[in-house]
Amino acid sequence: MISTDEKWNGVILTSIDEAVEGDLAVDIDDIELGVERAIQYSKGFTPVVNLVFGVDPGPRPGVAWIADGIVIGTSQLENIDSISEHIFGLAKALEHNNLIVKVGNGARLIRDRILNQLILHGVETLIVSEYNTSSGSRINAHTKAATRIAMMGGKRVWEIREIEPSEGEIKEIQNESRIFSNGAITISAELARTVACGDLSLEDAIKKS
Predict the structure, then answer these.
(1) By the number of CB atoms within 10 A of the CB, which of 9, 22, 108, 195 ranks highest?
(2) pLDDT band for position 202 (50/70/90)?
(3) Distance (Å, rounded) from C-alpha 201 to C-alpha 208?
């Protein structure tokens, strides 16, 4: 508890019902978003002109976000299915004029699925060369790469990409199904193609086999 004669330069995060002038009110269902917003306000990053996200594509993509050239956060996701929602949720935490997302050009199938998500949401999306973006330990390599991607120039992407897995990529997903099922199941090429296109999770494909 802060006494009335103490000076407080931070941000008070509280419930919608208890908030008073100057407090940051947040609903219990959006507590993660509220904490992120409080952190950004306390750092003085609002408002900003350009809010840029960098994405290092892969099964567990790395994400970094930068406000007017200043790195303000990084994270690593467990899958790509909700990456656009993750970015939009973080973007709500910071008042900005322009939202730009830059995606590395590696991991072709996953990259194109991420690009399609963003383009369908009308986001300004760029593809960036991943040459010389990887460094650091294996623990934080994806977030470090995402940070570098966010800071680099890229080429604007306008059109939805056609997802067409190669024979090698299909076989790799079949191999992943064997690993995931401890050698019990190898999904069919048809199911592997569906997984590659993002229409079915690997777990659900194994259940169908």
Answers:
(1) 195
(2) confident
(3) 11
Residue 208 DSSP one-character state = H
Instruction: Report pLDDT for 2.
Output: 34
Q: Taking a C-beta distance cutoff of 8 angstroms, is the pair 63, 77 a contact? A: yes
pLDDT tens, position by position, 14-33: 776 676 555 666 667 667 76
Token representation of residue 64: 């970094």
Gap between the Cα atoms of 64 and 68, Å rounded? 13
Angle 83-91/108-120 helices, nearest 10 degrees?
A: 50
Q: Is 5 exposed, middle or buried (0-12, 13-18, 19+ CB in 10 A)?
A: exposed
* Bridge partner residues of 51 (DSSP): 67, 99
Domains and CATH numbers, the chain: 45-163 (3.30.420), 165-209 (no CATH)
- Residue 97 to residue 48: CA distance in whole angstroms: 7
For residue 102, the surrounding DSSP H or E stretch is: strand 96-104
Tokens of 84: 């656009």
Name the amino acid, one letter, at 194.
T
Report the DSSP pairing between strands 48-56 and 62-67: antiparallel
DSSP 3-state assignment of 38?
A: helix
Rounded distance between C-alpha atoms, residue 183 and residue 88, angstroms: 38
- Written as six digits, the tokens of 49 are 């002109």
Question: b vs e for 164-178, b when ≥16 Cβ sit within 10 Å of the residue's Cβ?
Answer: ebeeeebeebbebbe
Instruction: Report yes or no on whether pTM surpasses 0.70.
Output: yes
